[in-house]
Amino acid sequence: MNSLRHVKQGEGLYLSWKTLVDTSLIFFPFGPSYCRQLRHSNLVQMLGVIVEEKGGLYIVTEFMAKGSLVDYLRSRGRSVLGGDCLLKFSLDVCEAMAYLEANNFVHRDLAARNVLVSEDNIAKVSDFGLTKEASSTQDTGKLPVKWTAPEALREKPLKDVVPRVEKGYKMDSPDGCPQIVYEVMKKCWTLDAAHRPSFHQLREQLEHIKASELYL
Questions:
Q1: Which residues are in the Protein kinase domain (predicted)?
Q2: Is the pLDDT of residue 39 over 70?
Q3: How far apart are CA 163 and CA 21, in angstroms?
Q4: Going from the N-terminus, what domains does the chain have, and what CATH number goes with each?
Q5: What average pLDDT is seen over the chain?
Q6: Which region holds residue 115: left if phi is over 0, alpha if psi is between -120 and 50, else beta?
Q7: What's the distance, Cα to Cα, between the start and end of the chain in Å?
Q8: For residue 194, what pLDDT is reported?
Q9: Cβ-count burial of 46 within 10 angstroms (0-12 exposed, 13-18 middle, 19+ buried)?
Q10: What average pLDDT does the segment 147-160 reach?
Q11: Does pTM surpass 0.90?
């Protein structure tokens, strides 16, 4: 992602633009103009789409000074980022996803690399090129295995992964993760999709953990 500087009414407004190499991944259910209307304090605001005559495609968004969440976390580590900070980022993401959920949108690739951090340390979900309207059909293209629901993997040639998950296997708790947070994570990995918490429910659970300081 590259940054641009756009001057408007005498004030500097920083923007970002992303060049899309594989345009087959892009799916705007109601067109880019509709996606621009998706506004939330924890969503990276899409400002426009540029289409070149030669086929080039660029997405213009607000500028996020501290880059992706995955790089932000890796460059600082647990000695710098405490549980309160990590919980705040989790809540930021839940806020954005609950908003998309309420608008019947599903993010196809929610991961730390697709969450950006602003200058004032607000995490915002990005990359709406990989957002699609919720429907009864499931795209079983290339998916990140570790955080993909089992039902989306059943038609893939993953002979070792799916049977283990269906027998109840769950990843171990990350180092330093409070048990109460790990219990929430395991609920998200429930085999029956109907029994997994919604993002609205996740937000409520994490807010309770934060307010009660149960993560300490």
A1: 1-216
A2: yes
A3: 35
A4: 5-62 (3.30.200.20), 68-134+142-212 (1.10.510.10)
A5: 80
A6: beta
A7: 36
A8: 93
A9: buried
A10: 72
A11: no
Please identify every residue annotated as catalytic.
Answer: 109
C-alpha closest to that of 112 among 73, 70, 174: 70
DSSP labels, the chain: -EEEEEEETTEEEEEEEEE-S-GGG---TT-HHHHHT---TTBPPEEEEEE-TTS-EEEEEE--TT-BHHHHHHHH-TTTS-HHHHHHHHHHHHHHHHHHHHTTEEETT-SGGGEEE-TTS-EEE--GGGEEE--S----SS--GGGS-HHHHTTSS-TTHHHHHHTT--PPPPTT--HHHHHHHHHHT-SSGGGSPPHHHHHHHHHHHHHTTTT-
Side chain identity at residue 87, one-letter code: L
Higher pLDDT, 24 or 69: 69
Residue type, 49: V
Structure tokens at 41: 């304090």
Paired sense of beta strands 115-117 and 123-125, if any: antiparallel
Place of tokens 């049977």: 163
Strand partners, 131: 107
